[in-house]
Amino acid sequence: REGGSSGVIINMEGALTARDRVGIQDFVLLDETTEAAFLSNLKKRFSKDLIYTYIGTLLVSVNPYKELDIYNKKQMDIYMGVNFFELPPHIYALADNAYHTMLTEFNNHFILISGESGAGKTEASKKILQYYAVSCPSTTLLNTVRDKMLMSNPVLEAFGNAKTLKNDNSSRFGKYMDIQFDSQGDAVGGHILNYLLEKSRVVHQNHGERNFHIFYQLVEGGSDDLLHQLGLERGCQHYNYLTQGQCPIVPSINDKNDWKTVKNALQIISFDETVIASVLHLGNVRFESDSKGHLLGVDAHRLQEGLTFRKIEAKKDQVLSPFTTDHAIYARDALAKAIYGQTFTWLVNRINESMENKDPSRKTVIGLLDIYGFEVFYVNSFEQFCINYCNEKLQQLFIELTLKSEQEEYEAEGIEWEPVQFFNNKIICDLIEEKHRGIISLLDEECLRPGDATDLTFLERLEEKMGNHPHFVTHKLADKMTRKTLERGDFRLLHYAGEVTYCVVGFLDKNNDLLYRNIKDLMCQSKNDIVKECFSSMDPDSRRRPETVVTQFKSSLQKLTEILVAKEAWYIRCLKSNESKQSGQFDEALIRHQVKYLGLMEHLRVRRAGFAYRRKYDVFLKRYKPLCPATWPHWRGVAADGVEVLAQHLGYLPDEYKMGRTKIFIRHPRTLFATEDAYEKCKHELATHIQAKYKGYRAKGEYRKQKEAATKIESCWRGTQARKEKEKRAWAVKVIKKFIKGYMTRGQAKSTDNSEYLAFVRQNYLNRLRNNLPKTVLDKTPWLTPPAVLTETSEMLRKLHYRLMVRKYVRGITPQKKAQFQMKLITSSVFKGKKDSYPQSVAHPFADTRISEEDINTRVIQMIRNERIKYCVPVIKYDRNGFKPRQRQLILTQTAVYVVEEAKIKQRVLYSSLKGISVSNLTDSTIVFHITREEPKQKGDLVVQCDHLFELLTKLCVIANKQNAINVVQGSINFEIQAGKGGAVDFSTGPEPMVYKAKNGHLMVVSWALSLLSHVSLRPTSTVIVKHITT
Ligand SMILES: Nc1ncnc2c1ncn2[C@@H]1O[C@H](COP(=O)(O)OP(=O)(O)O)[C@@H](O)[C@H]1O
Ligand SMILES: [Mg+2]
After folding, report:
1. Closest-lying ligand 1 atom to the alpha carbon of residue 169
2. Which of 5, 84, 795, 947 is 20 to 30 A distant from 738 in Cα terms?
3. End-to-end C-alpha distance for the chain, whole angstroms
């Protein structure tokens, strides 16, 4: 029973992944198994249109009474072949799981669909059929089988369904349908078994209910021709059998349209509508002369006789005794029921024939059992008794199958079986069906007993035999309290699902279901094939009484049990959400009632018995191994040991789990939830971890690739470089060799050996020369020494270059500068190499004048204006007597030199009388003007000290043309103080320039020695501070 138990696990996984969405998807995982918790979960889900919930493999479905968009092709595709633990509960999941288990394990299955009338059983079975029709592989050949299977539905519904108070399309028979599959999973055949058609509906309907759909479809939808042929009139109102419930027209049913579908289907199995028509006619029989017997293919007269006389067999004679009216009506109704019932059976047989697969190869089947669930009405009769008996049997089967599979699993896993607390309903089954002692036996006995057996005598017999059975009560047996709830004609059974009180009225008649023999014989002689066939099969020849209804039912149930027991079970329990067929209404009381009568809590308890969850070691380990460092990422040993380590690590208490042979068993859902929660959390962490690893791996790979590429490129590049280098070296060797040879033969005449070298030398020299040329004439950069071959050229170039530079220089000279140079030239010609301070003066340009006209007294200017002032300079004049230094202005005009003190002209020396000018050869700046005196009174020679000695004297040369008058004297300079009286100036060098009157009466001028002067060479002579010492 691997399929069943693995299904449990699969469901649990689904519930685990989705348990937080809306409620819990699997009741097995509910924390507490109370009815309140159960209902609350159901309600929570129903409010979100989640009509399906699991109890293990069992599917609980709540009728939504509205179209939900969950039965389309897309949904089917989602569930196809997918392990449905991944997906929310669905009828497709169950259908698919059954189908795939069947294919893989090659065994038979059945899906039991139960529930109250109107709970959605028939819809469920249709959904499953549609799912198989779409999801199974198909070939054109097989399509016909599939079509027939799908087509059989409307036909059986037309004949077997009716409007009741609870359901507008209530199935009034039990149906078991086998779908046969070949090993490829193709649907290749089918077979239908029907149970307990509610024949009484043909002749009687309660208020608000209808007869079977087919009658209304025929009289509303049949063509005029057809109706005429059948002697029928259009409209239900003409027929007694159709109007008792007083609601022939129902808004939710379109009889006309339905007829079209059914008519097509009926043609395929060549059904003849006359049988249906005859039933309608029978309903109108009022026991006057009538001629409609021809429809049944029997003689009208004989039919009339059959319905009005009873054939009594007394010894060898047959006596006809007339009926009372009641008897006649009974006989008529019995015939109508029999005709309809037999026709229904015939129809089912025809459908079976058409779906039969004659191929002898082995097939597996999935059986669909759409059977009435527990029925509890205000008044419960024989039908309810049979139905509820059927449910007891199915519950028994369920208990057996489930417990057996559980127990077998425990045994196989080597786990000790712990008895489960649940109610075993075998005691009730026995109460009903036990041979000779059960209710059925007693009922049959009463039916067969000669004498005046009635429903009440039957009740008495029951009380006699069952008197002290704990599950049986009657008015008479009950205690005071209970008695109040019972009528005298009632008996009550305490079914596993609850108590049901049955009213015995009609039990015997319904069980007998008698048809008088003469009518049966008459029907066997019918010319209508269908009628004849139907009644012939009712063992007409046998004198034995036919089996009673309940016994037939019992044996068919027995057969059904045998069929089912050999198969894997799947369950669908349908619940009705409310009585008024309204969407969105969750009638808690009604649902609690159904939960109870469907035994869902029982079912849940059995499912949860012992251990709520079990899982194969490898699968458990595979899912949860990330939770323990010892098992992550790989467990190298046996899976079971890994699970044990994991369980220890997770802190499972010894009582919470058991280790089987191949599976771990976990007792409480909460243990598993805690594990699952941890897993959910860990999963994200792991995912990040794996992602990071993977990214790292990718990056590394990428890096390696790039590195390889880089190395490749590098080596190629190096190769190229090396080759180039080699070429270069070879070339260099050649060049160097040639160079050396050229060098060695450089002195020889030009030849192939040295021509290149020489060219190189030449070029090299020229290039170097270009970069090392003197920039200006004044630039003292030495001319680059040429190689021997270029000595001549170099010299030429040198000359050229200097000429060029001189030219440039000359061009750049201004007139002022030219004048300056001309003056400097004069200075040079007079002093160069003669006076020591000369070199220092060269760099200092001459000024036009040293005293601007503003600084000369205006009176002086007025006096000498005519002579034009050429040059002025401040001087120190030494008195002729005593050599006292005096600040004076020396003014050169066109004609004379003036010595001026403020506004006074102290002395005027005409150039013509200036006979000589003396300076020393040292670095001092003393000048002696020698003057020719025409008159004795005239002042003597002039001794001055002028900082601009060279400038002054050069100007004088230019203005007065006195070059030749200037003497540079070594030693002393003699001069005339006045006529006849001489004086002298002595010169010497010393550490400090000074001027004083020496003891010998001479003017002593001390100046820096040339060597010292160079020391202060930066200072122009003019700024040399002369220390005057006066005595
Ligand atoms: N899954 C469903 N989705 C929508 N409506 C449903 C569904 N199941 C049942 N019904 C509604 O309930 C009615 C009764 O369902 P049905 O299968 O005939 O009940 P049962 O066979 O149990 O007596 C249907 O005619 C339909 O209107
Ligand atoms: Mg139904």
Report:
1. 18
2. 795
3. 152
Query: Is 405 an active-site residue?
Result: no
What's the whole-number mean pLDDT along residues 443-459? 90
Q: Cα(492)–Cα(482) distance, rounded to whole angstroms?
A: 10
pLDDT (mean) for 975-1004: 87
- Per-residue model confidence (pLDDT) at position 289: 39
Determine the pLDDT at residue 880: 82
CATH of 816-1008, one of 3.30.70.360, 3.40.50.1400, 2.30.29.30, 3.60.15.10: 2.30.29.30
Q: What is the pLDDT of residue 420?
A: 64
Q: Tell me if residue 7 is catalytic.
A: no
Mean pLDDT of 886-898: 93
Indicate which residue of 122, 343, 402, 441 is catalytic.
Answer: 122
Measured CA to CA, the distance from residue 931 to residue 523 in angstroms comes to: 193
Q: Which pLDDT belongs to residue 1024? A: 46
State the catalytic residue, choosing from 117, 343, 402, 578: 117
* 639: three-class secondary structure by DSSP: helix
**Dihedral angle at the C-alpha atoms of 491, 496, 497, 500, nearest 10 degrees?**
0
Active site residue 183: no
Q: Give the model confidence (pLDDT) of 851-872 as tens digits.
A: 998 899 999 999 888 889 999 9
Do 311 and 302 contact (CB within 8 A), yes or no?
Answer: no
| C-alpha closest to that of 873 among 856, 852, 890, 894 | 890
How big is the chain by its Cα radius of gyration, in Å?
71
Indicate which residue of 167, 954, 1007, 1021 is catalytic.
Answer: 167
> Which of 63, 164, 198 to probe ligand 1 with, by most ligand atoms within 8 A of CB?
63
Structural tokens at position 593: 């009632």
* pLDDT exceeds 60 at position 965: yes
User: Which of 69, 94, 123 to mutate to test ligand 1, by most ligand atoms within 8 A of the CB atom?
Assistant: 123
Is residue 583 annotated as a catalytic residue, yes or no? no
pLDDT-based confidence at 1014, cuts 50/70/90?
low
Give residues with Cβ within 8 angstroms of 749, minimum separation 6: none
What pLDDT score does 316 carry?
A: 67
Residue 1022: band (very low, low, confident or very high) from pLDDT cuts 50, 70, 90: very low
Is residue 764 part of the annotated active site? The answer reads: no
CA distances from 699 to 702, 708, 713, 840 (A): 5, 14, 21, 81
From the CA of 174, which ligand is nearest?
2
* Domains of the chain, residue spans: 616-726, 754-811, 816-1008
Share of the chain above pLDDT 90, in %: 39
Q: Which numbered atom of ligand 1 lies nearest the CA of 370? A: 21
Give CA–CA dist 762/755, Å, rounded: 10
Give the up-direction half-sphere exposure of residue 419: CA atoms within 13 A in the CB hemisphere. Answer: 4
Q: Ligand 1 centroid to 168 CA: how many Å?
A: 9
On the question of a cis peptide bond just before residue 154, with omega within 30 degrees of 0, the verdict is no
Protein residues whose CB sits closer than 6 Å to any atom of ligand 1:
63-65, 67-68, 115, 117-123, 167, 169-171, 574
Q: What is the pLDDT of residues 55-86, one digit of tens each?
A: 877 899 999 999 999 999 999 998 988 765 56
pTM of the predicted model as reported, rounded to 2 decimal places: 0.62
Q: Which CATH number fits domain 616-726: 3.40.640.10, 3.30.70.1590, 3.10.310.40, 3.30.420.310?
A: 3.30.70.1590
Give the helix ranges, DSSP H, for 843-879: 858-864
Tokens 């039991």, residue located: 112
- Supply the DSSP string of 464-485, one letter for each residue: HHHTT-TTEEETTTS-HHHHTT
Q: How far is the CA of 370 from the centre of ligand 2 (A)?
A: 7
For residue 246, how far is its CA from the centre of ligand 1 (angstroms)? Answer: 24
Residues 680-710 pLDDT 10s: 888 888 888 888 999 999 999 999 999 999 9
| Residue predicted with more confidence, 497 or 204 | 204
> Helix crossing, 949-960 with 815-831: angle to 10°?
100
**Cβ contact 65:119 at 8 Å:** no
